[in-house]
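Translate structure to sequence.
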């Protein structure tokens, strides 16, 4: 189990203990003695501290993930192959276009 999950479980248990402490030590109006209020404040501070620790570890994981990400994409094709990739066939090819326009130019010269 990861450290974050352990802290989350510990925080949940501490929060449940704080809630049950407050429920058992408060009178019908929800008031508690000063001593019980101080005890509850310590319990609440523990929950808050655990929350800060969890958030810190989560930020650390995000930064670690970002730092481990690749900075560039790998070469998957032959270098220079992109030039041949755009080669068209049939009447759309460069060879056909050149031959067509050479033919047109030669006709104009013969007249």
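Result:
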């Amino acid at each position: 189990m990861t450290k974050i999950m352990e802290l989350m479980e510990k925080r949940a248990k501490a929060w449940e203990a704080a809630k049950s402490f407050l429920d058992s030590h408060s009178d019908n109006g929800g008031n508690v003695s000063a001593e019980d209020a101080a005890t509850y404040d310590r319990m609440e501070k523990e929950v808050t501290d655990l929350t800060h620790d969890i958030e810190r570890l989560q930020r650390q994981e995000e930064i670690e993930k970002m730092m481990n990400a690749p900075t560039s994409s790998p070469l998957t094709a032959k270098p220079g192959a992109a030039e041949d990739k755009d080669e068209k066939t049939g009447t759309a090819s460069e060879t056909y276009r050149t031959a067509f326009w050479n033919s047109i130019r030669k006709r104009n010269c013969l007249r």
